[in-house]
Amino acid sequence: MAELMGPIRAQSLVEAFVTRFEELIISGELVIGSRLPSERELAGRMGVSRPVVHEGLVELQARGLVKLKPRKGAYVNDYRRRGSLSLLESLLSYHRGNLEPGLLGSMLRMRELFEMETARLAARNRTGEHLRQFREIIDREKKCDSTETESLVAIDFEFHLVTAIATGNLVYPLIMNSFKDVYTNLTGQFFADPDVAPRVFGFHRQLAEAIEARDEKKASTVMKRLLDHGERYLNKTIDERIAAVSNERVV
After folding, report:
1. Domain count, the chain
2. What confidence category does residue 8 fall into, taking pLDDT thresholds of 50, 70 and 90?
């Protein structure tokens, strides 16, 4: 207990450096194979000492994110082959900006497999208490202001979490909670459009009805339609953002 009650340590400059570069890789701003600036240049750009930069690069290499080549510099590694569990942890806690397209697509495919299964098992194993929780969430959704993005994101996540809990599998809710930051980052992007919430909450009502009826197939199908709707909207938003950036460059 005495150790746990010790002083709180702020993030060190090395840790901040590593976190910054993880985010650059996750967002796609640093692409696989690209060469990083020299340690001297990085130190100048980031306002830290060269020892901080060097220690940070060594840690990034240990995590499989960069490769340090003698007399040649540091290069961004292929995280699919070299990335460690620490990168996955960073991905799960990522809640700012946009994900690198390949990572985004992979996350969406994994979410589809996971949540279609949670919907199916929720229909099989739900209890009366779970149904009460679904009804309570849906009642709150009906009263939600479609312009209050933060509230919409929170209640949407709660619906999916209750679905995971209703499976009866003790690990599924933990997985869902582990994805909370990156999940809410994505849903926040499409709930920013007030026209999205009514459609999403309509899917929630259909899913709750299928779960109450213990219709496993329908529950899985509705979840797939819900996720497809979200993915289509995200892709549309990304395409519009890319087009806007391209137009700015032309101008």
Report:
1. 2
2. very low
Tens of pLDDT, residue by residue over 57-84, are 998 888 888 899 988 899 998 877 766 6
Tokens 């010790």 found at: 6
Residue 110 sits in the same domain as residue 73: no
pLDDT at 56: 92
3-class SS at 225? helix
Which of 88, 109, 129 is the endpoint of a domain?
88
What's the Cα-to-Cα distance from 230 to each of 48, 201, 225, rounded to whole Å? 41, 12, 9
Q: What is the pTM of this model?
A: 0.67
Spell out the residues 6+ positions from residue 118 whose beta carbon is closer than 8 angstroms to its own: 160, 163, 164, 166, 167, 172, 176, 223
If we measure between CA atoms, which residue out of 59, 60, 67, 72 comes closest to residue 24? Answer: 60
pLDDT higher at 40 or 178: 40
Of the candidates 88, 31, 21, 26, the residue with the CA atom closest to the CA atom of residue 58? 21
Alpha-carbon span 64 to 47, nearest angstrom: 25
Q: CB of 20 within 8 A of CB of 28?
A: no
The residue range of the domain holding 46 is 13-88
Identify whether the C-beta of residue 57 lies closer than 8 Å to the C-beta of residue 39.
Answer: yes
On whether both 74 and 166 belong to a single domain, the answer is: no
Q: Which helix (H) or strand (E) holds 78?
A: none
Determine the Cα–Cα distance for residues 183 and 42; give it in Å rounded to an integer.
32
